[in-house]
UniProtKB/TrEMBL annotation, chain A:
Topology relative to the membrane: Multi-pass membrane protein
Chain segments annotated as transmembrane: 34-57, 63-85, 106-127, 147-170
Entry similarity comment: Belongs to the TRAP transporter small permease family.
Keyword Transport: yes
One Gene Ontology term of the molecular function aspect: transmembrane transporter activity
Superkingdom to which the source organism belongs: Bacteria
Purpose of the protein: Part of the tripartite ATP-independent periplasmic (TRAP) transport system.
Subcellular localization: Cell inner membrane
Pfam families: DctQ
Gene Ontology biological-process annotations: C4-dicarboxylate transport
Protein name (database record): TRAP transporter small permease protein
Keywords: Cell inner membrane, Cell membrane, Membrane, Transmembrane, Transmembrane helix, Transport
Automatic annotation (TrEMBL), chain C:
Organism: Salinicola corii
All residue ranges annotated as the TRAP C4-dicarboxylate transport system permease DctM subunit domain in the record: 8-417
GO cellular component terms, semicolon-separated: plasma membrane
Membrane topology: Multi-pass membrane protein
Domain of life of the organism encoding this protein: Bacteria
This protein's name: TRAP transporter large permease protein
Listed transmembrane segments: 50-69, 135-158, 170-191, 237-255, 267-293, 313-341, 400-421
Range of residues in the leader sequence: none
Sorted UniProt keywords: Cell inner membrane, Cell membrane, Membrane, Transmembrane, Transmembrane helix, Transport
Family: Belongs to the TRAP transporter large permease family.
Length: 206, 323, 427
């Protein structure tokens, strides 16, 4: 709850390079949120309306299938970047968890830069693919939507994710502490354990 | 050389049998210089657009593309129009593979502008309707929730018949037919058998409205880059395969129909000419929809097809009635 | 080549790269070394077709429905009713947790949402009562897996489509096995609290129970609506996921007024985030498995095994169970089901196995594997939700995994447990 306000304070107080990064980052984050949340809502609305149409009027909504499939593609690939921003990509942290201090920070920088490299490569490859689809003029079967428009989500998602990982590496180079993403500091949540212990202790008091 | 050959179907299908025979001929005639590597459905992936990507980017130079090709080559939807081919399956096969049609500018350019070359057409048998009620006339089809692919022309065709076409994913189709969400289905006989759809349907209706047609296509750069010898080898082999393909298709569908009849008490209906004509009348305006959708080049290809039928004296009960 | 592939992926994985990196690196390795003749262009096409699938729409939709219920009243009402009936038993609190997970599983289709919805409120109560965090986390993870067996279930939908078998029958088939596992877990919880000497809570009055029951009448409409709707031919299993969302909205926005229209945006966003995290692995996993398939690896490994088994049903089921169990230890169950079902389909047919029975075994393995180290995806969900270190999350899992493997043996030995309900419900 107060972590967001703390974040804002910090952004205000820092000028220059990091401040500019954070501003850019916030703008991109807003874009991702609108796209991802919007796609989920649109999917729920479309599919429900299709079912209702089928039940009441024996007539579903033409193109429900292909639009749903397109929405999933957009969510997935724009989500790559959004998940990177919130350090939510699944990873196997057993070894990483054992490291501390500089070693941990160094490994995180290597991981971030390596992942960024892959993201940029996929951005390049998917950009080529989108151009090829554009040239071949492939469209969907029911609504004849050009696929290249929808699949532009891939290069965009990958490049934004790549930028996220570079920013994470930069943040770790500039700022003290270990940062799992540009704006999220690393840490486990001990609060529930502490609360429970405290409550148990309180219960046993006379 | 290795020629990779992608199929939209799995082992034991019409496409697979065709590819096997094709492989034997090519490998024998080339004295082993060329090996044909058959890649059935599943090996290259499971979504047809992946296969078409592979043909267009050249990683699979030779492949079949059927009713799913519409987004990639819009004009190919000509093959799913109803009542534009002769009733006789062999005759339809011959017309589609005639130089007049297959080598026509309209048909060739439809594919070549998308980096592909059409080499042949392999009809895989009639598209057969199934339903839980008997269908003899368009009146019987009123409001029937028949499953069609999510494709604007097919949807328009069945709406013209009076049905309420419903879209269902192939993987969910069996359940949907069983539970009654879909009341009818359109597949070639082998697919009805293969997927067990007949188990949950009561009537099987041969309206001879269209065949399931797979186009044999090649990557344009690959085809144009073949040596003269190799291209001639390919062309002559494909020519030999026309009749063979028809035999494979008929044999396989006959066997599958027998299995269906043995394993179930599904009732089989063949529409007579008068009944077919009722549907034919309703399907005819969809030809204009087709031209509006895909453009003049597609219209030209359709005209060539219809001319060829007429030129052959037409043993079918088509527009130019005879028999 | 195969060695090099395994080595690269393992090193990247162990170093702690996001799991999409080793999968992608493995895919590109096969492409650049010529193990598969496809190039990286095809990888992009495979990724898109891997997720651009109608069936997968059920995943975000069920998660969305569950997220709405978690934010609203339904989750707590379900907890209260189970609590009223079980808290006086020895081990009552963990049994409540397990049963609530099963019940929430009957309302939602998603194990991940179950971890959040039931694990979230139950964990502090368990800790306060003196249960260790190891036990608590392991219990939540594994009990949430019951959600995969009790309809509606994303696992069954994906399996049903891949195997071309009736999803409605699979749903019915999962109910008794789900309850069996619940009973086994309850026995373990009873023994565990006896050993630890944790006393039960006071019994709830019948009045309290009746009130709690009355409050779950509407939430219990979910299983009826979803299963009934599919069986009645009103909608398909995938469409049912959207119906679940609509019903969740009706309940929480219109009737209980616990979720405002404005909340929906942020709920949708968190649903989208979970979806994206899983689906990028589905996408790259699809490219990886397709590259693997064109390189002929699955057939090299499984082909001889499948041939040698022939029509020995016990061996066939055991092999299938083992393959899915191991697969889900490493990759998301959705990906594993999509990849392995086509490979094993011929074996199911040649051994004369009932695809419904196989579906129950497979889905159970997916559930177990995904709660099993090293990479079971439930573990990562728990890490993300509870923000605990990896080691803490897995420490308490072995007894639960042992129980689930016992359940597997029981279900293999007695197919009737799975097949009874579908045989009653079928045509
Ligand atoms: Na469930
Ligand atoms: Na699970």
């Amino acid at each position: 709850m107060n972590s967001t306000s703390a974040k804002r304070d910090e952004q205000r107080s820092r000028g220059g390079f990091l401040g500019a990064l954070l501003a850019l980052d916030r703008l991109l984050g807003l874009l991702e949120r609108v796209v991802i949340g919007g796609c989920i809502l649109a999917m729920a609305l479309l599919m429900s309306a299709h079912v209702v149409g089928n039940l009441l009027f024996s007539q579903g909504i033409a193109g429900t299938y292909e639009i749903t499939e397109m929405l999933i593609v957009v969510i997935t690939f724009v989500g790559v970047s959004y998940a990177a921003r919130h350090a939510r990509h699944i990873s196997m942290s057993a070894i990483y968890d054992q490291l501390e201090g500089r070693a941990r920070k160094a490994l995180l920088i290597v991981i971030s830069l390596g992942t960024a490299l892959l993201m940029f490569y996929f951005c390049f490859k998917s950009f080529e693919y989108v151009v090829a689809l554009h040239d071949r003029g492939r469209t969907s079967a029911a609504l004849h939507i050009p696929f290249w428009m929808v699949y532009t989500a891939l290069p965009i998602g990958f490049v934004l994710a790549g930028i996220q990982y570079v920013l994470t590496a930069l943040r770790n180079m500039i700022s003290p502490g270990v940062w799992r993403s540009l704006t999220e500091r690393e840490g486990y949540d001990e609060s529930v354990l502490d609360d429970a212990a405290a409550e148990r202790a309180a219960d046993t008091q006379p | 050389d290795t020629w990779r050959f992608g199929l939209e179907e799995t082992e034991g299908s019409v496409q697979y049998e065709y590819a096997q025979a094709f492989k034997q001929l090519i490998e024998k005639k080339s004295d082993g210089d060329i090996t044909v590597q058959i890649l059935p459905y599943g090996v290259w992936g499971s979504s047809y657009s992946t296969l078409y990507d592979a043909i267009q980017n050249g990683s699979i130079p030779l492949s079949f593309g059927s009713g799913f090709l519409g987004g990639t080559v819009p004009e190919s939807q000509l093959m799913s129009l109803n009542y534009v081919m002769p009733n006789d399956q062999l005759e339809a096969t011959e017309i589609l593979n005639s130089d007049a049609f297959m080598k026509s500018d309209a048909w060739q350019q439809s594919f070549r502008t998308r980096g592909l070359v059409p080499l042949a057409a392999l009809p895989e048998g009639y598209q057969v309707w199934t339903a839980n009620k008997a269908i003899h006339t368009p009146a019987d089809m009123q409001g029937l929730q028949i499953r069609v692919m999510d494709n604007s022309l097919l949807r328009a065709t069945y709406q013209a018949y009076g049905a309420s076409p419903i879209t269902i994913a192939y993987g969910e189709l069996y359940s949907a037919l069983q539970q009654g969400q879909a009341e009818g289905n359109i597949q070639p006989v082998w697919a009805h058998e293969n997927m067990g759809f007949y188990e949950v349907q009561d009537y099987m209706i041969f309206a001879e409205q269209s065949q399931f047609i797979a186009n044999l296509i090649a990557n344009e750069d690959w085809y144009d880059g073949l040596s003269d010898d190799q291209r001639q080898l390919l062309d002559t082999t494909i020519h030999e395969m026309v009749k063979k393909g028809d035999e494979i298709q008929k044999q396989l569908n006959q066997d599958r129909l027998k299995t269906i009849e043995e394993k179930s008490d599904i009732k089989i209906i063949h529409l007579d000419q008068a009944q077919r004509d009722e549907f034919r009348k309703l399907a005819k305006p969809i030809r204009d929809d087709f031209v509006n959708l895909v453009g003049e080049r597609g219209g030209k290809a359709l005209d060539i097809l219809l001319e060829q039928e007429k030129a052959r004296g037409d043993k079918s009960d088509g527009d130019s009635q005879s028999s | 080549m195969l060695m090099g592939l395994g080595l690269i992926m393992l090193v990247l994985l162990l170093l702690g790269f996001p799991m999409m990196v080793p999968l992608a690196a493995g895919t590109l390795y096969m492409m650049f070394t010529g193990m598969t003749f496809f190039g990286p262009d095809q990888a992009v096409s495979w990724m898109i077709s891997g997720v651009g699938s109608w069936v997968l729409a059920a995943v975000p939709m069920f998660i969305f429905a569950a997220d709405i219920l978690t934010k609203g009243h339904t989750a707590n009402r379900l907890l209260d009713v189970v609590d009223a009936f079980t808290r006086h038993l020895r081990g009552g609190l963990p049994i409540t947790t397990a049963a609530s997970c099963a019940l929430f599983g009957a309302v939602s289709g998603s194990t991940q949402a179950t971890v959040v919805a039931m694990g979230g409120p139950m964990r502090p109560r368990l800790l306060k009562k003196g249960y260790s965090d190891d036990f608590t986390l392991a219990l939540i993870i594994n009990a949430s897996d019951i959600a995969l067996l009790i309809p509606p279930s994303i696992g069954f939908i994906i399996y049903g489509v891949a195997m071309q078998t009736s999803i409605g029958d699979l749903f019915l088939a999962g109910i008794l096995p789900g309850l069996l596992i619940l009973v086994l877990f309850a026995i373990y919880c009873w023994i565990d609290s006896r050993v630890k000497g944790i006393d039960p809570e006071p019994r709830a009055s019948w009045g309290e129970r009746a009130r709690a029951l009355k409050r779950v009448v509407l939430p219990m409409g979910f299983p009826l609506l979803v299963v009934g709707g599919i069986y009645g031919g009103f909608f398909s299993a995938v469409e049912a996921s959207a119906v679940a969302v609509a019903y969740a909205l009706l309940l929480e926005v219109v009737i209980y007024r616990q979720v405002s229209i404005r909340d929906l945006g942020s709920i949708a966003l968190s649903t989208g985030l979970i979806t994206a995290v899983v689906f990028i692995l589905v996408a790259i996993g699809a490219a990886f498995s397709q590259a693997l398939a064109t390189a002929g690896v699955p057939n090299q490994i499984l082909g001889p095994l499948i041939d040698s088994i022939g029509d020995n049903q016990f061996l066939a089921l055991s092999l299938i169970a083992a393959a899915f169990f191991v697969g889900c230890m490493f990759v998301d169950p959705i990906v594993v089901i999509l990849i392995l079902v086509p490979i094993f389909k011929p074996l199911v047919q040649s051994a004369g196995l009932d695809p419904i029975h196989v579906g129950v075994i497979v889905t159970l393995q997916a559930a177990i594997g995904s709660a099993t180290p090293p990479f079971g995806c439930d573990i990562f969900t728990a890490i993300a939700v509870f923000r605990r270190p990896y080691i803490d999350v897995i420490r308490g899992t072995p007894p639960f995994i042992a129980i689930l493997l016992l359940a597997t043996l029981i279900l293999i030995a007695f197919p009737e447990i799975s097949l009874l309900l579908p045989s009653l419900g079928g045509d």
